[in-house]
Amino acid sequence: MEVQENLKGINKAIIQACNRANRDPKDIKIIAVTKYVSVERAAEALEAGIVNLGENRDEGLNAKWEVLKNKPTWHFIGSLQSRKVKNMIDKVDCIHSLDRISLAKEIDKRADKNIDCLVQVNVSGEESKQGLEPEAVIDFVQAMKAFPNIRVIGLMTMAPYTQDENMLRSCFKRLKAIQEEVNELKLPFAPCTELSMGMSNDFQIAIEEGATMVRIGTALVGNELQGG
Ligand SMILES: *Cc1c(COP(=O)(O)O)cnc(C)c1O
């Protein structure tokens, strides 16, 4: 597993997707999802030029943080239990899974600085997926006014695991449309410029539909802890 080789291929694919969509590749941030790999592999990603690491559990974040400290920008991408917030809030730069008021309250209470958050939306409506219903997003974002430590910098979604390109596209388009609705409100605490969407199997399509953050695990760093 050569992270550097993988990154080359991914960068190429990002450029191609940007060309198709008339976008600037500089506007795309790669979040290397290291939840299934060792700290050594995560360090290899940083050496290859990755800046952003994503973890989905407080244990995984803490274990890697012990070694890598503030070298990367840390993203939390998994469902987050309120009682876990205090274990990770001082190590994380960006939380992609804000999806309920009680969690916002806890983040606001425990943070001693502004935390960049993305509101997770369950666009596909799959029961197994976290996130707000699309119809609930506007009210939810407006309610963030009560929490001075929370800055809503964008929206996040997980598309269904499918090869059906039309289904993926419509999911990403819907998130983009909700983002535009949020931005029409011009809320000072919700500069909603980011769209976190796209993973190993669908990041090119997500970029064509407006993604600014792609969360890539398997295709970039592999999944060695899962036997891959
Ligand atoms: C695991 C995970 C990813 C990365 O998935 P890959 O298919 O390995 O790229 C992205 N986003 C979230 C929320 C994840 O949990």
Automatic annotation (TrEMBL):
Hydrolase keyword on record: no
Keywords: Pyridoxal phosphate
Entry cofactors: pyridoxal 5'-phosphate
Modified residues (N6-(pyridoxal phosphate)lysine): K35
Keyword Secreted (UniProt): no
Gene3D superfamilies: Alanine racemase
MF-aspect GO terms: pyridoxal phosphate binding
Domain Alanine racemase N-terminal, residue spans: 27-222
Domain of life: Bacteria
Protein's job: Pyridoxal 5'-phosphate (PLP)-binding protein, which is involved in PLP homeostasis.
Record NCBIfam families: YggS family pyridoxal phosphate-dependent enzyme (TIGR00044)
Family: Belongs to the pyridoxal phosphate-binding protein YggS/PROSC family.
Name of the protein described by the UniProt record: Pyridoxal phosphate homeostasis protein
